[in-house]
Each structure stands twice: as structure tokens, then as C-alpha cells.
């Protein structure tokens, strides 16, 4: 029963001894804290301000099974399946929004937007390139230098190699498959870091955030991203119904021309045989009138189907309710300068304490190695 008690006292003595060692060399610890705090202050002051523009909206889908069922027969003629569009499933997949946002065609649309940082109207692609170059060339940022020449070194080497490879002519033409240049790939990856989309599946709302060094550009890109994303979702949802509408309208126009041609043919036949009442004339007239009645019936039915298809397109078009509109931010999102200085100071505290604790064991180990080498030299 005494051993645990003795162990506890021994641990307490060890902790007291460690605290005494740290207190004796407290000046060294304070110096280390001051050095790292100074580095943190320099890094915090040299960091570029970043502003975030956000928007939140809720997508809502509408569908009608009755209209869809009435169009299913006609849709099958065009090879179009309306089951997934006009059926019971009217919700937009939540996983669809990030996929569209990270797709290359969508990013190209965003890069083609015009922005006006500092009053100069330029393409967003050029603004993003200048922003990337500024981050990499900021020599005052210690973290940027460390990231560039440590973690970013493989990417830098890869960039130098692939730029030469991309400059080589391509001997195989593939018009349906495009190849990204290394610069476009870098822009795409950087844009993915700047744009963030958060899909709340439980509540049903979607939040888009864009970070930029210029507050006005941040607001413009956030708003444009929201608009383009909603357009892509609408086009995706109404694609089948729109194809059906286009097919039905073309078929209606074709049958309309045929119906009008029959009308003209019947009128001409009557004008040419006004004074004739033979059996052949009556048979011919009856056939023309029957064909005209069938053509009129088909044309009128197609006209109804066109209106139903237009209604279906409107019902399948998602409705977006904007909860939080985009505004130009006034307050920066980062850097959090106070937190940076506190973190650097804490790192300095840990390093200073660690150095104080391992200083004597290292000296003892170095002296032991020196004595051992000296003894080996004196003893042949």
C-alpha cells in the first residue's frame, strides 16, 4: 500500500523540479517567446486582407404527375423518357451543386466574368492570375516562403516540367476531348480553394462563399456564381421537358402545313368541279373531306400537347428563394492578426520550455561522448 503513495510523491517531486528548472531559465523562455511573437507580428502585418462574400438560397422543385402522364405517349415517339422529370421525384439532388461548381465548363464561365478591382475593369481570370502571383511573390510572408519551397516545391517542379510538355505540338487531334494547360489547371485548383459551397441537406438551403483580396470582386463573383449555378440547375431539370416541347412544336408546325395544304387542295377541287355531281366527284370529295378532318384533329391535338408541354416546362423549372443576398463586405475575414501573434507566442513558449528541459541532458550526453573518445585515444 506504500508503493503507490511513494510513486505519487516521486512524481510530485519531479514536477516541482521541472518547474524549478523552467523558472531558473525563465529569461531564456521569455526571450524565445519574444522572438516568436515578433515573427508573428511581422507575419500578421504582412499578410494580405481577405474578404468573404456569401449568399444563401433555397431551391424548390415543382412537378405534376397528371400532365406528365398525358405527355408520356407522345414523348415516347421522340425517344424521351419523362419518368425522372415529371414523376414523383421533383427534388434536386444535393450532390449536384458541388459537382457543377467544380466542373471545368462552369469554372470557365466564372473566369470570363468582368470584375473591377481598384476601379480597373478586367477579366476575372486576369485578376485571379495577378492575385496568385502576388501571393507567391510576397517575400514578407514567411508562411508563403515556407509553403512555396517546402510543401509547394513538388508542384513548382511539376509546373516547370509540364509547361515544357504542354508547349510541344499535339500530333493526335481529338476535337471532343480538350486538354487543360498547366496554367488553367492551376487557376482551376486555386478557384476551388476560393469558392466554397455548403449544402445543408436537412434544412434544404445552400450557402456559397467566395474569398478575395478585393471586397467588390468578392461580391461580384459570389453573385455571378449563384446566378450561373441556378441557371445550370434549371437547364438540367427542364432538359427532358424542353426537348419534348421542341419536338412537339416542330411536329405541330409540320402537321399545320399539311392541314393547310389539304384545305387548299379541297378548295381547289370544289372550285374546279362546281357544276359536276357525278359519283366519282362525290367519292373524291368525301375522301378529301375525311383527310382534312383527320388532319384537323391531329393538328388540334398537337396544339393542346404543345400547351401542356409548355406548362410542364414551367412546372419543372426550380424556384430559388434568396434568403441572404450578396453584399459587398466591409470587414475582412482574414488574417486574424491577434490570433496569429498568440499562436506564434505559444509556439515560442513550447520551444523555450523544451530547450530548457533538454539542455542539460544534451550537455551531459555530449560530455560523455567526448570522454569516451578521449579514453579510446589514450588507451592503445
TL;DR?
The protein has 380 residues and is an alpha+beta fold.
Describe it.
There is one protein chain. The chain folds into two domains: about 50-240 and about 315-335, no CATH class; about 240-315. It has 14 helices and six strands. The chain has helices at about 1-25, 25-45, 65-75, 85, 95-100, 105-110, 125-135, 140-150, 155-165, 180-195, 215-235, 240-270, 280-315, 335-380, and strands spanning about 50-60, 115, 120-125, 195-200, 205-210, 320-325. Helix 2 crosses helix 14 (about 335-380), helix 8 crosses helix 9 (about 155-165) and helix 12 packs antiparallel against helix 13.
Structural Rg: 38 Å
Give the overall average pLDDT: 77
Counting structural domains, the number is 2
Query: Kindly, what is the distance between the CA atoms of the first and last residues, rounded to a whole number of angstroms?
Result: 54 Å
User: Stretches where pLDDT falls below 50 for ≥5 residues?
Assistant: 62-70, 81-90, 167-173
Search tags:
14 helices, 380 residues, 2 domains, alpha+beta
Reconstruct the topology from this structure:
Elements: H1 2-24, H2 26-46, E1 51-60, H3 65-77, H4 83-86, H5 96-101, H6 104-111, E2 114-115, E3 122-123, H7 124-137, H8 142-151, H9 153-167, H10 182-194, E4 195-199, E5 206-212, H11 215-237, H12 239-272, H13 279-316, E6 319-324, H14 337-378
Antiparallel strand pairs: 1-5, 1-6, 2-3, 4-5
Amino acid at each position: 500500500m506504500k508503493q503507490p503513495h511513494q510513486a505519487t510523491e516521486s512524481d510530485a517531486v519531479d514536477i516541482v523540479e521541472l518547474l524549478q528548472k523552467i523558472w531558473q531559465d525563465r529569461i531564456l523562455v521569455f526571450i524565445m517567446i519574444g522572438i516568436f511573437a515578433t515573427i508573428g507580428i511581422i507575419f500578421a502585418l504582412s499578410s494580405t486582407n481577405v474578404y468573404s462574400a456569401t449568399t444563401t438560397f433555397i431551391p424548390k422543385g415543382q412537378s405534376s404527375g397528371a400532365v406528365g402522364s398525358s405527355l408520356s405517349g407522345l414523348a415516347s415517339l421522340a425517344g424521351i423518357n419523362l419518368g425522372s422529370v415529371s414523376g414523383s421525384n421533383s427534388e434536386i439532388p444535393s450532390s449536384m451543386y458541388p459537382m457543377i461548381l467544380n466542373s471545368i465548363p462552369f469554372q470557365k464561365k466564372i473566369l470570363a466574368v468582368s470584375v473591377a478591382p481598384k476601379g480597373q475593369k478586367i477579366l476575372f481570370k486576369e485578376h485571379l492570375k495577378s492575385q496568385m502571383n502576388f501571393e507567391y511573390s510576397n517575400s514578407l510572408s514567411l508562411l508563403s516562403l515556407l509553403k512555396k519551397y517546402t510543401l509547394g516545391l513538388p508542384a513548382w517542379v511539376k509546373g516547370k516540367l509540364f509547361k515544357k510538355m504542354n508547349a510541344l505540338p499535339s500530333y493526335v487531334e481529338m476535337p471532343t476531348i480538350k486538354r487543360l494547360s498547366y496554367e488553367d489547371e492551376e487557376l482551376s485548383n486555386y478557384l476551388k480553394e476560393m469558392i466554397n459551397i455548403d449544402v445543408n441537406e436537412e434544412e434544404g438551403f445552400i450557402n456559397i462563399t467566395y474569398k478575395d483580396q478585393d471586397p467588390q470582386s468578392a461580391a461580384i463573383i459570389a453573385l455571378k456564381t449563384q446566378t450561373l449555378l441556378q441557371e445550370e440547375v434549371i437547364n438540367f431539370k427542364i432538359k427532358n421537358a424542353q426537348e419534348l416541347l421542341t419536338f412537339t412544336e416542330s411536329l405541330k408546325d409540320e402537321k399545320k402545313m399539311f392541314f393547310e395544304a389539304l384545305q387548299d387542295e379541297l378548295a381547289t377541287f370544289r372550285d374546279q368541279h362546281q357544276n359536276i355531281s357525278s359519283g366519282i366527284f362525290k367519292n373524291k370529295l368525301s375522301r378529301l373531306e375525311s383527310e382534312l378532318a383527320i388532319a384537323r384533329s391531329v393538328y388540334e391535338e398537337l396544339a393542346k400537347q404543345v400547351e401542356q408541354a409548355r406548362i410542364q416546362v414551367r412546372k419543372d423549372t426550380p424556384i430559388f428563394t434568396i434568403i441572404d443576398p450578396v453584399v459587398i463586405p466591409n470587414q475582412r475575414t482574414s488574417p486574424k492578426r491577434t490570433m496569429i501573434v498568440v499562436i506564434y507566442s505559444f509556439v515560442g513558449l513550447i520551444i523555450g520550455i523544451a530547450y530548457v528541459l533538454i539542455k542539460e541532458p544534451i550537455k551531459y550526453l555530449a560530455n560523455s561522448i567526448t570522454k569516451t573518445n578521449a579514453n579510446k585515444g589514450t588507451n592503445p
